Amino acid sequence: MASHRHSEPPSDPALRVKALESLLTEKKLIDPAAIDALIETFETKIGPRNGAKVVARAWVDPAYKQRLLSDATKAIAELGYSGMQGEDMVVVENTPKVHNLLVCTLCSCYPWPVLGLPPVWYKAAPYRARGDRAARGARGVRPQAAGRRRDPHLGFDRGTPLHGATRASRGHRGLERGSARGAGHARCHDRRRQGQAAGALRGRA
Amino acid sequence: MNGIHDLGGMHGHGPVDPETNEPVFHAPWERRAFALMISCFAGGQYNVDEFRHAIERMAPADYLRSSYYEHWLHAVETLLVEKGVIKESELAAKWAALAKGGA
User: Fold this and answer.
1) Which pLDDT score is estimated for B2?
2) End-to-end CA, chain A
3) pLDDT tens by residue, A9-32
4) Per-residue pLDDT tens for B47-74?
5) Which H or E run includes A102?
6) Which of B5, B14, B26 sits opposite A106 (nearest CB)?
7) What is the pLDDT of residue B91?
8) Which residues 21-60 in chain B show a CB within 8 A of chain A?
9) Dihedral (CA of B50, B51, B54, B57) sign
10) How far is B84 from chain A (nearest CA, A)?
């Protein structure tokens, strides 16, 4: 069922937020102090510096690195980072030959406890549409682009691994979204293939 | 069932455009929208799958045209109304009152 609603919301999102907050406070369904604490936590206490500590520990402590690679959730929790959107962590290692790319094509799954909230570019259409093509070797991202941006770490050799943020960790969601990965499935992950299939049906090659 | 959110492989969206020194939130309302969503989730009004599905059901043009936290607002409003936590009429009345400058 599409979520079309009878009344069009106001164009001003600030007004919509005020309305929700006011109604929910009147109904005692939210606690304004908790709202403030949540904002404070995610704006100042949870961010990529946490993940940097995890990585740095792995650099200097080979036993920790092994624990991190084999049970990331537990190893990350050793440093005190855990919680929402970090319940099923997987850590993979970049090497001179393999650069790992993480993309959530369907929404914005991101490891909050170690990286904080995702940046806008990660959640917006261009990256979500292109991320998987870059990893598959399509001409979405070229190594020269990495040189232009002076980022020595983007030395792709264009193999997979491609890590869907959702697929990597959330087995229970695999049934809904994973089933679309098979070629020929009506809900096709790759819209180009879907277009080709439609073209074939219309009698064009 | 597919939807506009299924963006993997779609052409035409242009280059990835990162913002330098991007802040966590781009406006005060985004802060409140984020925290409201989390609070309602923590309060058991909906689960993560319902939340995502409410966004995935948006009219495609609205989904592409609106910002990330506007998606969140849409989902929270939709779910709270569908679950009877707030009435659509209450929400509309509150919008009208706030637009007039009241509370």
Assistant:
1) 85
2) 35
3) 999 999 999 999 999 999 999 999
4) 999 999 999 999 999 999 999 999 999 9
5) strand A101-103
6) B5
7) 97
8) 22, 24-36, 38-40, 43, 45, 49, 52, 54-59
9) negative
10) 12
Q: How far apart are CA A4 and CA B67, in angstroms?
A: 17
Does this model's pTM top 0.80?
Answer: no
E strand or H helix that includes residue A149: none
Distance CA A156, CA A134 (A): 9
Structural element, H or E, at residue A196: helix A191-201
Query: CA B97, CA B90: separation in Å to the nearest integer?
Result: 10
- Cα separation, B8 vs A197, whole angstroms: 17
**Residue A143 CB neighbour total at 10 angstroms:** 12
CA distance B49 to A124: 20
CB contact under 8 A, B95 and A106: no
- Model confidence at A131: pLDDT above 90: no
Q: Which residues of chain B have pLDDT under 70?
A: 102-103
ipTM comes to 0.96
